Amino acid sequence: MTKEVGEKLSAVIIEDEQKARRILQTLLEDNCKDVEVVGVAEDVPAGVKTIISSKPDVVFLDIELPGFNGFELADFFEEINFEIVFTTAYSEYAIKAFQMSALDYILKPIQIGHLQAAVEKAKSRKGNQIQEKMQALKENLNSSTPNKIALPIAEGFLFVEQNEIIYLEADNSYTTIYFTNGNKILVSRSLKEFIDIINSPEFFKPHRSYYVNSNHIRQYNRQDSGSLVMDNDHTIYIARDKKQDFIEFMKNKGAL
Predict the structure, then answer these.
(1) Under 8 Å CB-to-CB from 250, ≥6 apart: which residues?
(2) Terminal CA-to-CA distance of the chain, rounded, Å?
(3) For the domain 9-141, what is the CATH superfamily, name and number?
(4) How far is CA 112 from the centre of its chain?
(5) How far, in Å, are 106, 166, 177, 238 from residue 252 at the CA level?
(6) Domain residue extents for the chain
(7) Residue 125: CB partners within 8 Å, gap ≥ 6?
(8) 129: alpha, beta or left, given left = phi > 0 and alpha = psi -120 to 50?
(9) What does residue 225 show for φ and ψ, rounded to 5 degrees?
(10) What is the per-residue pLDDT across 128-162, written as a single tens digit (0 to 9) for each?
């Protein structure tokens, strides 16, 4: 869906509150000159009709809607070829689920900078794998601990369970992820970004270059600052200033 220079991005707004629809449309018209709002709707069924008739590039979708909620929009399409940007007032916990599912969102009340950033993403991305993203989002929202994470790869996104990850290793601005099935992939996202997104009580950072899944630690060696032997036989050394933190971490898990 990459747009040519000067070509406008067509957009549909699905929002049940008339005032909120008007505000978002005005914000887009005043601050995102390369976006053209081609339709608005107050609920999912009306939104589906509008999308079919106008074929937008991007849909700005509220979550709390009458009848069907925003998450159910994808169920009405066999194939989705448009981007979805959720407009939400959800809590920080729910936002983590959006990040893990690789779905774009804008927090209410909408800030111009966040809206413009979402538009820039939509301009450069093709609306694929939306169904998979939505399914991952639903699972994460319904779980007390979000489990599924979307990893950006050349073909799109790879959806994996967190517990399938043995550890993550920093590689400059990239991250190599090692899995329980013996595979590994290099992802164009920094280790810090993954730490912020995963933020799981099962993961620990023993070294500035590693983020490990404690469920896949096979052995802890006490010598010097300590080291970890992971389930794939790889040894990861613990930074000196992290040794006591690791001991406390494992004690809290009841493992020591």
Answers:
(1) 214, 220, 256
(2) 52
(3) Response regulator (3.40.50.2300)
(4) 21
(5) 36, 20, 26, 18
(6) 9-141, 147-252
(7) 1, 83
(8) left
(9) -85, -5
(10) 677 788 888 887 777 666 688 889 888 788 889 99
CATH superfamily name and code, 147-252: LytTr DNA-binding domain (2.40.50.1020)
Cis peptide before 56 (omega within 30 of 0): no
Rounded (5°) CA angle 200-96-126: 125
Give the pLDDT score at 126.
58
Strands 35-41 and 9-14, by their bridges, are parallel
**Burial zone of 254 (CB within 10 Å; 0-12 exposed, 13-18 middle, 19+ buried):** exposed
CB atoms within 10 A of CB 218: 12
Site of tokens 């006591």: 244
Q: DSSP string of 20-70?
A: HHHHHHHHHHHH-TTEEEEEEESSHHHHHHHHHHH--SEEEEESS-SSS-G
What are the φ/ψ torsions at residue 221 (nearest 5 degrees)?
-105, 130
Domain pair 9-141 / 147-252, same fold: no
* Mean per-residue pLDDT, 105-112: 91
* Parallel, antiparallel or unpaired: strands 217-221 and 227-230: antiparallel
- Which 8-state DSSP code applies to residue 97? H
Q: What are the tens digits of pLDDT across the range 181-215?
A: 999 999 999 999 999 888 788 999 999 999 999 99
Locus of tokens 């601990």: 145
Q: What is the pTM of this model?
A: 0.69
